[in-house]
Amino acid sequence: MPTVESSPSVIPSLGVGTFRLKDDEAYNSVTMALDIGYRHIDTAQIYKNEAAVGRAIKDSPVPREDIFVTTKVWNDKLNRTHFVESVEESLRKLQLSYVDLLLIHWPSPEHGESMQEYLGELLRVKEMGLAKNIGISNFTAAQTEEAVRILGEGVIATNQIEVHPYLINEKVRETCAKYGIVVTGYMPFAVGKVLKDDTILSIAKKYNVTAAEVVVAWELAHGLVTIPSSTKRENLATNFKALSLKLDAEDVAKIDALDCGDRQATPDFAPDWD
């Protein structure tokens, strides 16, 4: 599978997300994904499915070292008291001795801890060998700049943010590019909205592929990592086929032009978006 190089990690460019998937749904989705050929699995503490994801990884014939596993630390654990303990709990649930990538899920500590504190804990977890790579998620451009000032350049592997044709998130992406931080785009289908878009459907018809393949290929064309999710084997397989789809520059530009700031992830603790 193609990978996107970052400093210091190599992240498989197409992964499978597990947001909103519980118990057997999460287990079956990850099992099918690994069977199809995915080697990047994304979960989080708040998803409450790390145990199911871990069982699927353990039960798979794919060697552990061939699977890139990401999890994320939740807002109530962003402090010296609970951070490391929460990661150790995640590893127990995942039945792993390390994750390949550990992220701060939101720059929104529940108890007002400083970024210096929770990024320091993130770095400590890496130094302990519990995470091979570390990164951030849902950080604005200014917060990304601050994180780089705290940790230094070449430490943050990715910023996982919402990116899809209706929200291209250009300012944050430009800031990440400035520091060599790979962007991981989540919610690539905008909860299904963009799959019904006339422009995307016409491009799909041109290439004789699905709208989902076009959207995933668009994200990959921009050098993004992306992590669509599905509980259906057919959809997982279709998304995976996008790795071989190359859109021409004109079609990429047409999709870029669909940007309308239609953000899907807007919890009340979110930062002031760019």
List the keywords.
single chain, alpha/beta, TIM Barrel, eight-stranded parallel β-sheet, two-stranded antiparallel sheet
Please provide the count of β strands: 10
Structural class: alpha/beta
CATH class of one domain: Alpha Beta
What letter string, H or E per element, gives the SSE order? EEEHEHEHEHEHEHEHHEHH
- The CATH superfamily of one domain is NADP-dependent oxidoreductase domain
> In this structure, how is the largest beta sheet organized?
8 strands, parallel
At CATH level 2, the architecture of one domain is: Alpha-Beta Barrel
- Low-pLDDT sequence parts: none
* C-alpha termini separation: 32 Å
Give Rg in angstroms: 18 Å
Helix content: 25-40%
| Shape descriptor | globular
Q: Give, in spatial order, the strands making up the sheet with the most strands.
A: 3-4-5-6-7-8-9-10
Q: Given the structure, what is the number of helices?
A: 10
Q: What is the CATH T-level topology of one domain?
A: TIM Barrel
Strand content: 15-25%
The oligomeric status of these chains comes to: single chain
Mean pLDDT: 96
Describe the structure.
The protein is built from ten helices and ten strands. By secondary structure, the protein is α/β, with parallel strands linked by helices. It has a domain at 9-189 and 223-229: NADP-dependent oxidoreductase domain (TIM Barrel, Alpha-Beta Barrel). It is globular. The two termini are 32 Å apart.
